[in-house]
Amino acid sequence: MNSTSERSDGVAAVIVLAAGGGTRMKSATSKLLHRVAGRPMLSWAVAAARGLDPENLVVVVGHKRDQVEAHLHEDAPDVRTAVQAEQKGTGHAVACGLDGLGELDGEVVVTYGDVPMLTGDTLRDLVAAHREQGNLVTVLTADLPDPTGYGRILRDGEKVTGIVEHKDASEDQLAITEINSGIYVFDSAALSQGVAQLSNDNAQGEYYLTDVVTMAATGTVSAPGHRGVGAWRTDDLWQTEGVNDRVQLARMNREVNRRIVETWMRAGVTIVDPDTTWIQPDVDIEQDVQIEPGTFLNGATTIRSNSIVGPDCTITDSEIGHDVVITRSEVTLTDIADGARVGPWANLRPGTMLGPQATVGAFTETKNAQTGRGTAIKRLSYAGDVQLGDEVTVSAGTVFANNDGVAKQTSTVGDGVFLSSSTTVVAPVKIESGSFIPAGSVIDAESASAQDPDDTSDASSDNPTSEADL
């Protein structure tokens, strides 16, 4: 990749074009809100734009405007929106973005909301090249083996003389492989002059932003200390690729995930099958973690060293400690301390906190459940809204009944309690430390208060409980 040593220190504005119809996506959801690596494409575009520290950050909205504005209100409330009520081309969209910004001093960068792999680093290099060369306009370009559908860069030697859209290109121009990414840096004065002079006299009947590039190349627009059109070429073709349909969306997701997975492997994480492992960008993994096939790591998940996750796990927004083993399970908004064991086929729902060396067995579900050290919730159990102490045994088939029909209730189980198989604990209830609950018991507040922690007489031969029942 071409690069420059100079870096940008803020631009006057970044305009993100996000008004298009996205009809090829065939979706009731705005194309810009379809996700790449768990993030809406527009969020990727806004993050890249923030890398330029712009004085103004504007997203031009139009199609499915309400959805896009609602997303920005939640995800990026400081971003301004401008409305392009009718889609009359990229030049018209930029004019809408400039409207209301007043007189600008510096550069205006134009990007797209559906180019999720464009990075802030690339934009900073583009701006640095623009400043170093003293251009009126600098274009981000790439050489594509198949440039079909892209505008072509026209040159006279090294000098950029213009850009021609694919549908307007001659046969000779269609043979050009250097394409226009649609991402530009403009001198703000030249951009304002050019947009004011745009015409829609072309095959599409639209106002092309590329015509402003031609104006800069021919001297139709000007600005003190700047002249001509430059290009900064990227070797990373993915950074120029947009997403227009679900086939392209899947390709983009695969490529982003491939890069994330490869980064973690090079950082000391074992990923047994990179093709079936999906890791989102905010996940953090320490060295010597092993990720088995079919695993999805989502959101702000952290996994500490020497843990094994998978196969067939989905972990979302969770903290996983050292030396943890999770097998064929789903874990969401959960904290798991060092040495814990989960699964197979467990479902740890939000609010679960497992203490050190805790165990959650097969076909067990937890929610708002906290355990102490060494506590085991065995298979085929449900633990909801419960605080379990240290070294508690919750045997197979035990249910904490936490809903009284009106509201959720909580239970507390002290240290060293043994709950035998098929026990039902009816909240709200407190079971004292050291209690032994025979198999098949129903424990409510009244029966719990009468329980003698040292009385195991009910554990008769009619209700045998052995380690095999746990």
TrEMBL record:
For this protein, the record's InterPro entries field holds:
Bifunctional_GlmU, GlmU-like, MobA-like_NTP_Trfase, Nucleotide-diphossugar_trans, Trimer_LpxA-like_sf
Q: Which stretches of sequence are listed as region Linker?
A: 247-267
Give binding positions for UDP-N-acetyl-alpha-D-glucosamine: 17-20, 31, 84, 89-90, 112-114, 151, 165, 180, 244, 349, 367, 382
Q: Name one GO cellular component term.
A: cytoplasm
Q: How is the cofactor bound?
A: Binds 1 Mg(2+) ion per subunit.
Give an example GO molecular function.
Answer: magnesium ion binding
Name where it's found.
Answer: Cytoplasm
In the record, biological process GO terms are: cell morphogenesis; cell wall organization; lipid A biosynthetic process; peptidoglycan biosynthetic process; regulation of cell shape; UDP-N-acetylglucosamine biosynthetic process
Please report the stretch or stretches of sequence annotated as the MobA-like NTP transferase domain.
14-143
In this chain, the stretch annotated as Disordered covers 442-470
Mostly located where? cytoplasm
Amino acids binding acetyl-CoA: 396, 421, 439
Q: State the top-level EC class.
A: transferase
Residues recorded as binding Mg(2+), renumbered to this chain, are: 114, 244
- Matching NCBIfam families: glmU
> What is the role of this chain?
Catalyzes the last two sequential reactions in the de novo biosynthetic pathway for UDP-N-acetylglucosamine (UDP-GlcNAc). The C-terminal domain catalyzes the transfer of acetyl group from acetyl coenzyme A to glucosamine-1-phosphate (GlcN-1-P) to produce N-acetylglucosamine-1-phosphate (GlcNAc-1-P), which is converted into UDP-GlcNAc by the transfer of uridine 5-monophosphate (from uridine 5-triphosphate), a reaction catalyzed by the N-terminal domain.
Q: What is this protein called?
A: Bifunctional protein GlmU
Q: Which organism is it from?
A: Cutibacterium granulosum DSM 20700
